[in-house]
Amino acid sequence: MYITRRERFSSAHKLLNGKFSQKENKNIFGKCYELHGHNYELFVTVTGKINPQNGMIIDLKELKKIIKDKVTSKIDHNFINDVSFMKDMVTTTENLCIQIWKELSEPIETLGAKLYKIKINETENNSFEYYGE
Ligand code: NI
User: Fold this and answer.
1) Which of 101, 70, 75 lies closest to 12, judged by CA?
2) Catalytic residues
3) 127-130 and 2-13 as β-strands: parallel, antiparallel, unpaired?
4) Which residues, at least 6 apart from 132, have a Cβ–Cβ distance to it below 8 Å?
5) Distance 64 CA to ligand 1 centre (A)
6) First-to-final CA distance of the chain
7) pTM above 0.85, yes or no
8) CATH 3.10.20.310 given to domain 2-130
9) Cα(91)–Cα(66) distance, rounded to whole angstroms?
10) Distance 15 CA to ligand 1 centre (A)
């Protein structure tokens, strides 16, 4: 069985690689090199065994709190390029998925479940899924 919690955050970013000059970054990233923002939707899917004592795989109140503490409180209404877990990375949604996985997988295990998937909708048309490979 799989359980998915959705959270939303609105954040600004610029796609750039710190190793490249302004001109190179403009060539590589085009309009995405300019400051702009997205209304992201984050889907955190967990799996695991049902705890016979409470009938739950994970306490969704606890999952909600972990996502808030580790991710949305840091990134919502912020500049993603400055967020601690995205420092020195190109702030693509691919990298966001991987870094959010790293932030959440241990705390979810502490709650007795297993992180299965991170999905982020960046726009209506673009979505990204990561299974921690
Ligand atoms: Ni963007």
Assistant:
1) 75
2) 32, 77, 122
3) unpaired
4) 101, 105, 115, 118
5) 25
6) 20
7) yes
8) no
9) 22
10) 7
**Confidence (pLDDT) at 10:** 98
**Strand segments (E) across the chain:** 2-13, 36-47, 114-121, 127-130
Q: Model confidence over 22-70: pLDDT tens digits?
A: 999 999 999 999 999 999 999 999 999 999 999 999 999 999 999 999 9
Q: Measured in angstroms, how far is the CA atom of residue 17 from the centroid of ligand 1?
A: 14
Cα 76 to ligand 1 centre (Å): 14
Residue 81 — very low, low, confident or very high, per pLDDT cuts 50/70/90? very high
| Structural domain boundaries in the chain | 2-130
Helix (H, G, I), strand (E, B) or coil at 28: helix
Distance 38 CA to ligand 1 centre (A): 6
